Amino acid sequence: RREPLALINLKKKNEETGEEELASRLDHCKAKATRHIFLIRHSQYNLDGRADKDRTLTPLGREQAELTGHRLASLGLKFDQIIHSSMTRATETTEIISKHLPGVKKISTDLLREGAPIEPDPPVSHWKPEAVQYYEDGARIEAAFRNFIHRADAKQEEDSYEIFVCHANVIRYIVCRALQFPPEGWLRMSLNNGSITHLVIRPNGRVALRALGDTGFMPPEKITRT
């Protein structure tokens, strides 16, 4: 779902019409619409929870999600769907945001769960997961990038607006990959809870970053990064 030429089976190329036939088939596979991807980091949650089910949103986290939902609704866009991580904090954030966007379908996925995408460069002293984590989480998060971040399907006629509620590590990695920056630099970015990151994917495959970790819609006393 990226380069149109990759969507054509060249073995079936018509030998008589040659390049003319190829050009026609290429046009049929080219994207026409722009995709707007809104990556939302979950709100503040209970860090003391031992299991995922115990890591629920704090009262402040619920306020943050309300503010994020209100901000998204105020944009006046026709959102197509909300895809969210299956982890508790992301699911709860989604439920609150969705109240401000009635009728927008919600889809849960394990691909967007938090993890260690790739060993950061330069390394940091305060966060050193075991090497095996990078292999386990990295493949999954890369799969999430490939599955969700691509140009519009050729059949899509109108621009789309999609929300993804997930986690800081996942969002930072996706931003690096989408912009074709070295993914090892993902940890150089910082994202606030409930923040909005806006990626635009044009029909020609070019990607632009319109906002990174925006929380300008929140009062200063409501902003956290935990």
TrEMBL record:
Enzyme Commission number(s) from the entry: 3.1.3.16
Record the organism.
Stercorarius parasiticus
Q: Classify the source by domain of life.
A: Eukaryota
Q: Which EC main class describes this enzyme?
A: hydrolase
The molecule here is called: Serine/threonine-protein phosphatase PGAM5, mitochondrial
Segments crossing the lipid bilayer:
none
Stored Gene3D superfamilies: Phosphoglycerate mutase-like
Identify the Pfam families for this entry. Answer: His_Phos_1
Cellular component annotations (GO), alphabetically ordered? mitochondrial outer membrane
Q: Which reaction does it catalyse?
A: O-phospho-L-seryl-[protein] + H2O = L-seryl-[protein] + phosphate; O-phospho-L-threonyl-[protein] + H2O = L-threonyl-[protein] + phosphate
Question: Do the record's keywords include Hydrolase?
Answer: yes
Name the family the entry cites.
Belongs to the phosphoglycerate mutase family. BPG-dependent PGAM subfamily.
Which GO terms of the molecular function aspect are on file?
protein serine/threonine phosphatase activity
Give GO terms for biological process: positive regulation of mitochondrial fission; programmed cell death
**Which InterPro entries does the protein's record reference?**
His_Pase_superF_clade-1, His_PPase_superfam, Mito_Ser/Thr_phosphatase
Where in or outside the cell is it found?
Mitochondrion outer membrane
Which UniProt keyword terms apply here? Answer: Hydrolase, Membrane, Mitochondrion, Mitochondrion outer membrane, Necrosis
